[in-house]
Amino acid sequence: MARQTLNQVGSKVVIGAFLVSGTFHLIAPAQFMPLLPDWTPYPLALVCLSGIAELLAAIGLIAKLRWAPIFTALVLLAVWPANWWVAIEATNNAEIATAVIAWLRLPLQLPLIYWALKSPVKSG
Fold this sequence. Notes:
Elements: H1 2-27, H2 43-62, H3 68-92, H4 96-117
Helix pairs in contact: 1-2, 1-4, 2-3, 3-4
């Protein structure tokens, strides 16, 4: 029972994070542009698409749709390289505080992926 409760709380954490992050991707995309390498094609489009994907994932989890846990985990995996990029770039640029935060953020995606996959879905 405790594991089920933790998974339900975790699912809500993912939903909340994706609602906030997805919304900010769309209303302030410039804030996310530095997360992408300079050579990334169509960075603004990618930021907006990732925001839309996060919002769709959150809505799917809220509605307990069968596709939502896998889709959410895939979105988390898709944005992980950008998080690695930020950590490496911050380290290379001697931005100590940014680097520490970026490196600490990387392992936090693992429980988010787990909780996404364990999110409840409607039976049937």
